[in-house]
Amino acid sequence: MPEETLPEQIARQLRRDILRGKLPPGTSIKERDNAAEMGVSRTPMREAIRILAQEGLVILRPARSPIVAQPSIKEISDQVEVLIALEKLSAELACKNATEAEIDALAATLDYMDKNFETADPLDMFETDMGFHASLARMSHNDVIAELHRTLLERLWRARYLAARRRRNRERVIVQHGSIVDALRNRDRAAALAAIEAHLGHLDRDIRNVLAQEAEAALATE
Amino acid sequence: MPEETLPEQIARQLRRDILRGKLPPGTSIKERDNAAEMGVSRTPMREAIRILAQEGLVILRPARSPIVAQPSIKEISDQVEVLIALEKLSAELACKNATEAEIDALAATLDYMDKNFETADPLDMFETDMGFHASLARMSHNDVIAELHRTLLERLWRARYLAARRRRNRERVIVQHGSIVDALRNRDRAAALAAIEAHLGHLDRDIRNVLAQEAEAALATE
DNA sequence: TTTTTGAATTTGGTATACCAAAAATCGTTG
DNA sequence: CAACGATTTTTGGTATACCAAATTCAAAAA
């Protein structure tokens, strides 16, 4: 059995629907209706909505229906700024704290990506890529960093996915990930920082571009 | 009118009781009993408990009563590490983004502390000190940073309060805050980083000391 | 036709009832 | 007397009922 609480299951389902676009921004999430639709009562549905609100996916309004959030470009950009800062901090700390076994595991992930980059499902490869970064955060051996990083990565999932589809480039990803692993092996903090910078430096601009483009398309079909 | 929801009010009351030590770590927070005691039903009490769980003050256990968290030294230390990193990032960004008016307001806070340091209630002065740092985070003009900083400051409230009581030293606090303001005025990122480092560099060690000392005292009265 | 108003409906907030799992209690048995 | 086990109690999880605020919409008046 999955050992996941009912509110978490509901939250996961709603999260999927929101990220996949089935529930576009602005849609109201009514406790009663959604609960009935999923065959549960309002209590766990209510709790699930709170979870998503905490994640920033829905907005709670006093005495009104919660609605699916429409993150502004600024919000996304702020999140990316913090994400990058956390990864830099992770890299520095990981140089000091990561075990050899952890670095080996990270290298194995890199190797897996290298071998399967062209053949595997793009979505799987994207998940692996996210996993690489999540592992790096955990290698800081600072649970707060790992947790914050995980949360931000989750919130940025959709934006990063859209941005990644454009820059799908084996050389770039593999080489840059490789230089991160090398820096960790050498316990070279400056090199690690530089490698993160090189890898994520364009992320903010990329995401801004793809979101602006999407907003434009949305206006066109209006 | 306060316009604060009932669960938030309940959470605030419980938070006070926990931070003040009225509910020591390990105490179980029973939905039914606590709700009855405060004259509300289980539903908002339940929600309040989730809020505190999210803040890390209580631990949710599957099919068990939530209990007041006993943060380990490691957890506190991890949080301090991230807090310092966020303040450094804030200072850098504030050098670029803060308005002159914001810097003036920060300087006013500093001036207030300077004039009232000895006469005011230590708790008030501590709150003002926290407000100084919260303002700095907001001056990054990055809402994610400001929000994370606020959350961490809240979680570390008790530990910082205990640590601050020892190092209550007018010179130190006023001068160091002053150098932060000066760095911001000059838009000097390096100086701002150095000022934050000088001000918070010992925080981790101080908190570790005071917590270790407290744990020792707890054992003695056992 | 437009505006206003008030009643019906919708919706989140709160209280309560019910259930199942886990603890605790207590009696039984070796 | 100790160890085990059944039963009672406690407790969180879920469902449902009720309420009040807010919205909506229609009817009536200007």
Automatic annotation (TrEMBL), chains A, B:
Keywords: DNA-binding, Transcription, Transcription regulation
UniProt xrefs under PROSITE patterns: HTH_GNTR
A GO molecular-function descriptor: DNA binding
Xref: InterPro entries: GntR_C, TF_FadR/GntR_C, Tscrpt_reg_HTH_GntR, WH-like_DNA-bd_sf, WH_DNA-bd_sf
Signal peptide: none
All residue ranges annotated as the HTH gntR-type domain in the record: 4-71
Pfam family, one: FCD
Name of the featured protein: GntR family transcriptional regulator
Organism expressing this protein natively: Donghicola mangrovi
